[in-house]
Write a structure and sequence with these properties.
The complex is a heterodimer of chains A (400) and B (271). Chain A contains 16 helices and 2 strands. Chain A has a two-stranded antiparallel sheet. Chain A folds into 2 domains: 194 residues, no CATH class; 120 residues, no CATH class. The radius of gyration of chain A is 23 Å and the shape is globular. In chain A, 70% of the residues lie in helices and 1% in strands. The N and C termini of chain A lie far apart (71 Å). With 271 residues, chain B is an alpha+beta fold. Chain B has 2 domains: 39 residues; 226 residues, 2-Layer Sandwich (Alpha-Beta Plaits), CATH 3.30.70.20. In chain B, a hairpin with a 4-residue loop joins β7 and β8. The longest helix of chain B is centred in the N-terminal third of the chain and has 32 residues. Chain B is globular and about 55 Å long. Chain B starts with a helix and ends in a 7-residue tail after the last strand. Classes of the chains: A mainly alpha (400), B alpha+beta (271).
Chain lengths: 400, 271
């Protein structure tokens, strides 16, 4: 085959996009949606590692992780509502759902999970809220009265009941958090028309990447908040978190690569189009950014941090940087799956292009605002729920 | 001798074509003369037999509609696309129907294009084909009206639904424009209409069919490459085509969607 002929083949394979496939309908908002829900699910898992699985060294962040999850879950639907052509009809998904739709369940799963999360926070914080209520005046007193569900009873007997409730909520919360994000993966994995999405591995990859983004979010924010407020950083806690991050990331990264390897190895007729996609428009965002920079570097550095005893300052700095890199890796993965999957035309003979704009309804600026909102909300929540046990007026009376 | 026969056929076809164009022009002019709204439906002859009674009312009975595209007939004139755009005021850049041009060279390379969805017709041959061309043909595309439609399965609010007579339609008053149906459709016939902000697609002109009229694209096709009818009517052309030996197939059969849109003379290169 002459080189000219090879070029002709390449053109033949890459030149035709179905006319309606030129539009990328699921834009940045649908990149953010699984990103935010993933952070929520991951943060909840961190909390459960202490509350359910008894990993004692994670106690310092066990309550904070829940409040962190709440801050993000509150804005999980923001990108979705901004994306919908008719957001005023959004509630129809819950009022008149279509039972066969993989998307219709989201409203229920999301709501149920949010309720469990709020209840768990309220019960875990109840002694704290009661103590704060006694100190507070004015509006804050009213707020604490509402949040402590009107009960001031912090007797040993009452707290024992609380403890049982917390254990129960955490126990059902774990499968719910996994369902929430595994399900988000299924929304994509169930689209048989898209060979990039349609793989049973999709929910697994989404769930694992959710775990790493949640753990990374907790590590980064814990170190940053503690550093800026000049408070004590529990290094045992940070080291344990890094080990969990590394462990989850090994699974996550391996499955991401296995998914691609399976496509390449089976080399069905879809692979021609997928290969064109991965080595064409996704080359920079997938191979260079997601795999090359933001997976391999954290993969190695997190391994070193987990296995080698390094000075605290090194762990703090590298831990934060690697967590940040993991957070970027996960959003790149969301981009490559959500946008990448749509770039490949269903003609399987070509791909579209997509460049988000700064100032459009679903553009870059709006995306940044949506990602800042949970952080602002987290700051507001810190005024109500003390994150750390050393700030807690009730901590000496009872430990959670 | 054989050439004579072919030439005779071509000239006959040409005559039929001119007749059709003339007929269309006259009918069109009449429509301009007759004030809009004055024309009763019963005055327009029924194009699909047995769809309405003497008063023009739709007769409700069990039907199984089929759409057949004969790619051995399509000449790529784009009339169907123009008719469709006029019928629905389809926004530019979105396509309820389109026509693809396939060119296959003697090295088995497949070249496909559909500039502006074929709306302007294919007036010039492709000039970028290096090797001798082995085969070339046009493939009109439209909604496949699947028996197992992915779009209906995934719609979270039930805005996309299937009628008893097999049409897959969108209720624009319920659609939230989440775009899941756009992703799920294996044939990429769906888009989000920027005017209504809802999902949109070809309906096989359900509003016309209910009145006994053929879909707009079928109506205008000068070479009868598009055919439409009721498979429960054994006299219909679609019944005859699907019940007699023909090279007939559907698009992407491995998707399991069971399209009611069939193609006569479909080549394996077509997706």
């Amino acid at each position: 085959m002459s080189p000219e002929h090879g070029a002709a083949v390449a053109t033949a394979l890459t030149n035709y996009v179905f006319p309606n496939d030129i539009h990328v309908h699921w834009s940045l908002m649908i990149v953010l949606y699984p990103y935010i829900t993933g952070i929520v699910a991951g943060a909840f898992i961190v909390s459960s590692l202490y509350h359910v699985f008894g990993i004692q060294s994670l106690k310092p962040v066990s309550r904070y992780a829940l409040v962190f999850a709440l801050a993000f879950v509150a804005f999980a639907t923001a990108p979705l509502l901004n994306h919908l052509g008719h957001p005023e009809r959004a509630m129809n998904m819950m009022l008149t759902p279509n039972p066969t739709s993989a998307m219709a369940g989201f409203g229920y799963i999301y709501s149920a999970y949010t309720i469990v999360l709020i209840l768990e926070i309220l019960f875990i914080y109840r002694p704290t809220l009661v103590a704060l209520k006694q100190k507070a005046t004015g509006k804050m007193k009213t707020l604490y009265t509402i949040l402590s569900i009107g009960s001031d009873n912090v007797s040993e007997k009452a707290l024992k009941v609380d403890h049982k409730i917390i254990a129960f909520l955490a126990a059902i919360g774990i499968p719910m958090a996994c369902t929430l994000h595994g399900y988000v993966g299924f929304i994509f994995g169930g689209v048989k028309a898209n060979p990039m999405w349609a793989t049973p591995l999709m929910p697994v990859i989404f769930l694992l990447s959710a775990s790493v983004s949640g753990i990374a979010g907790i590590i980064l924010s814990y170190i940053l908040i503690k550093t800026f407020t000049r408070k004590f950083i529990d290094m045992d806690c940070v080291r344990t978190l890094i080990k969990f991050l590394w462990g989850c990331f090994i699974l996550d990264f391996v499955f991401e690569m296995l998914e691609l390897f399976s496509h390449a190895y089976m080399a069905t007729h879809h692979w021609e189009a997928l290969k064109d996609l991965y080595f064409g428009p996704l080359y920079q965002s997938f191979w260079v950014a997601q795999v090359g920079i933001f997976s391999l570097i954290p993969f190695v550095v997190l391994g070193i941090l987990s296995l080698v005893k390094l000075p605290d300052i090194v762990v703090k700095v590298l831990g934060s940087v690697m967590s940040f890199m993991i957070l970027i890796q996960v959003i790149l993965m969301r981009w490559n799956v959500v946008i990448g999957g749509q770039l490949m035309s269903k003609s399987e003979r070509g791909h579209a292009v997509f460049h988000p704009l700064w100032f459009e309804k679903e553009g870059i600026l709006v995306s940044i605002i949506i990602m800042i909102l949970p952080i602002v909300f987290l700051f507001l929540l810190s005024k109500v729920f003390p994150f750390w046990l050393d700030d807690d007026p009730a901590v000496h009376k009872q430990s959670v | 001798m054989m050439m004579d026969g072919i030439e005779k056929e071509i000239s006959q076809d040409r005559r039929a074509f001119i007749k059709k164009v003339l007929g269309g022009t006259i009918a069109g002019s009449l429509l301009l003369v007759i004030p809009a709204g004055a024309m009763e439906l019963s005055a327009i002859p029924e194009q699909i037999p047995g769809m309405r009674d003497d008063t023009g009312t739709f007769i409700s009975k069990k039907r199984k509609f089929a759409f057949i595209v004969d790619i051995t007939r399509c000449i790529g004139c784009g009339s169907c696309c123009v008719a469709d755009k006029n019928e629905y005021q389809v926004p530019d850049g979105m396509y309820r129907t389109w026509v693809e041009r396939y060119v296959i060279d003697d090295q088995d390379n497949v070249f496909v294009d559909s500039p502006n969805g074929g709306l302007d017709g294919y007036q010039e041959p492709r000039k970028d084909i290096e090797h001798p061309v082995r085969d070339t043909f046009f493939v009109p595309k439209l909604c496949n009206m699947c028996e197992h439609p992915s779009c209906v399965q995934v719609c979270p609010v039930g805005a996309t639904y299937q009628t008893d007579d097999g049409f897959v339609l969108v209720d624009a008053k319920r659609c939230v424009a989440c775009g899941y149906c756009v992703q799920a459709c294996p044939y990429s016939v769906r888009f989000i209409n920027p005017k209504t902000k809802t999902a949109d697609k070809c309906t096989w002109c359900y509003h016309r069919v209910r009145k006994g009229l053929l879909p707009a694209c079928v109506n205008v096709c000068p070479v009868q490459a598009r055919k439409f009818g009721d498979l429960n009517d054994k006299d219909s052309e679609v019944y005859k085509i699907l019940h007699q030996p023909h090279v007939v197939s559907v698009l992407k059969p491995d998707m399991g969607n069971k399209p009611a849109l069939h193609y006569v003379g479909l080549r394996r290169e077509v997706v």
